[in-house]
Amino acid sequence: MTRPLPFVDQLRALPSVDEELDWFFNRAECDMGLSSNYQQALRARSAAPLRTPEDAAEAAHRQRRIRGWLEVMDDADAGVLQAAYELRPWPVALFDELGRLTGIVVKLACALDLAHADPRTARLVEMARAEWLVVSSAPLRQDVSLARLRRQAEVRFVRAHQAYGVVRGGRS
Prior knowledge:
By secondary structure, the chain is mainly alpha-helical. It is built from ten helices and no strands. It has helices spanning 15-26, 28-31, 37-45, 53-72, 75-85, 92-98, 102-109, 111-114, 119-136, 144-168. The radius of gyration is 18 Å and the shape is globular. The two termini are 22 Å apart.
């Protein structure tokens, strides 16, 4: 069964869902109090308000709820959301061109490389491929193969957000 390609207006997630997924993949552990002693020391010196145990409990509840939604989804869709939202030190030129789609495009470009790769080295392969995309695709805006990967990433991103919206119980 083939699903229709998304329309342009579907390429942007609701701001609340966008923030929710960004929080889950990048800040949830810190908000639950699972940050390092170094991070706690920095916070103690700053004017930032300290987290209360109630804040940590609410963050843990929110994290479990979102994780539950992601676990109910198809693994491929949940993986697309992780690739889109998990912060990584991507090459600046590539991230400037692709934004939220950067991780998805890199994973698509690495699909054959990672098919039998050791999971411990997958991140190294992805970063090397990201650098290769920048070097081999100059100028990035005119590269046909990068445009093709971007379109595939857009389709997967929209479908993953739609799947998340279904399990979440609303439009995403």
